[in-house]
Structure prediction request, 285 residues.
Amino acid sequence: MPEAADPASVTAREAQAFARVTLARHPDRPRALRLIELLFSDWTELHGDRLFADDRAVVGGPARLGNRWVMVIGQEKGTDARTRVIHNFGMPHPEGYRKAKRLMLLAQKFGLPLICLVDTPAAHAGVEAEERGQAWAIADSMLTMFGLKVPTISVIVSEGGSGGALALAVADSVLALENAIYTVAPPETCAAILYRDANQKARAALSLRPEVATARALGVVDELVPEPSPGAHAHPLVVAAALKGALVRHLCDLEAQPRDLLLEARWERYEDPAPGSIPPGSPSA
Prediction:
């Protein structure tokens, strides 16, 4: 029989796993608005979903990346107490995802590549969000991304959680900052569901393996953008320069592909993998 795991070792690994979550949530990490300022020029923010309201957890509009026009959509968490409340801590309501869909369709109309900056623990979990069609809005955003006839790139900036992140992450290329996390649910939510105790978040984090290196091993993320120690919060300009280079490189590769092949490759990318198709040694789903 296999020997029981050493409790001290398990505790240490749990603490290490949740430390990755804490680093990704560092309050000084560059947020979407800051990255838009550093990466793009001539950005014009567009507002509203044309149905209900303007959700400030989602920001977006056309901008220039070098010498090309693109459409940028980002989830904004805010940087202090006031702006975090304004942006609802980066947790979009349904109108945020409907605004994102509106901007995606504008990108297609004008032939603009789409770049999404993902940074959310999850979509807003309030009753009012469900009353206004949260699940439908997320699914509609994902379906829209599937069918866009323009190149699409998503970047996991800090925290990509649950369907709230997937709504902006069904892209041709998915990049991630090295210290970001990408999970099916935040560790606290996972612990509350599985263990009936949100305080067991470190235990849940160990099982989730939230670091983006896990997603990279599974092929969900295409490239990790390096962060100098101790992280992007200490070197935002360096990280932004590295991210800009990666965006331009991936965009050049995608723009060189015929549109019909681009769409076909996108659908194939997100189909359910056949049994045994996950590379040996990769973390299991």
